[in-house]
Fold Transcriptional regulator.
Amino acid sequence: MSAEHEIVDAVLVGDGDAGRVVGQSLKALRCAAGLTQLEMAKRLGVGQAAISKIEQRGDVQISSLQRYVEALGASLRIDAAFPVHSNLGVRIRTETGEAVDDDDQYILPIFGDRGDALPAQRDVVISIKPNYSGKIFDGVKTIELRRRFPLSLAPGATAYIYSTSPEMALVGAIKIENVERLELCALWKKHGRSASIKKADFDEYFSGLEEGFALKLSTPRRFTRPLTLPELKERFGFKAPQSFLYAKPDLQKALRNEHTNISD
C-alpha cells in the first residue's frame, strides 16, 4: 500500500512509550502527506535535524505538536475518552441526567476546537403513553414532565415520540423549546395544567424525588405513517427507551429524509 493511502490508527501506549508512539504517528502522517523530512522542515522553518528528533522521540511541547500538525494542513485536537459506565461517567449522568447508548463514550475536549466535531443539536426519542401523545398532537399538552432529562439539550432540538403499548411505534415529532428543572411543588404549580396530568398521577410519577424536569413543547407534527417497533428493530437495531434516548445518526437521517412531508 502506498504511503498516501495509509491510515494512521490510534494506539494504546504504556508507561514510557508515549513519546515514541507520538513520534511514529507524526512520521506516518508526514509520509501519508507525501512529504520528506526536508520539505517538512522548510514548512516549519527549522532544520531537518529538528524534524528527525521530533519523529524519533516525540516528546515535544503541545505548541510544537500543533505547529507540526498544522503544517500538514490539519488541526490538533486532544480528547479524553472514557466509558459511560465508569465512575466519572456515572457522575456525569447523575448530575446532568444525560442519556447515552450502552456502547457510547463520553468525550471531554482537552485541547483544540471541537465545534466542528459535535453536532449542532442532538435529537432524542421520548417514550410517551398513547393517551398523552394524542394530547400533544391535539395541542392540549404543551409540557412534558420527566424524572430526569439533560439540561444541555440545545433549544429547538427535535424529539421523536415513541408511543408505548399498545401502539408501540414512532408516531411523530415535536420541538423542545427549553428544559427546566424545578422543585416538585414549583413544577406542579407552574406546569401541572399544561402537562395535562392529574395531581395523583403527578405525585406517583415523581415519588421519591425532590425535583423534576419540564420540557416546553412546540410544533407537534404527526407522521403520515408510523414506524412500528418491528420495523425500527430490523432497520436500525432500535430499542424502545424506558424514558428517552438520543437518536442514532442512521435513525435520525432516515426520519428527516422520509418524513419531511408530515401532517400538521
Notes: The beta strands are 78-83, 105-111, 124-128, 143-146, 157-163, 169-183, 211-228, 244-246.
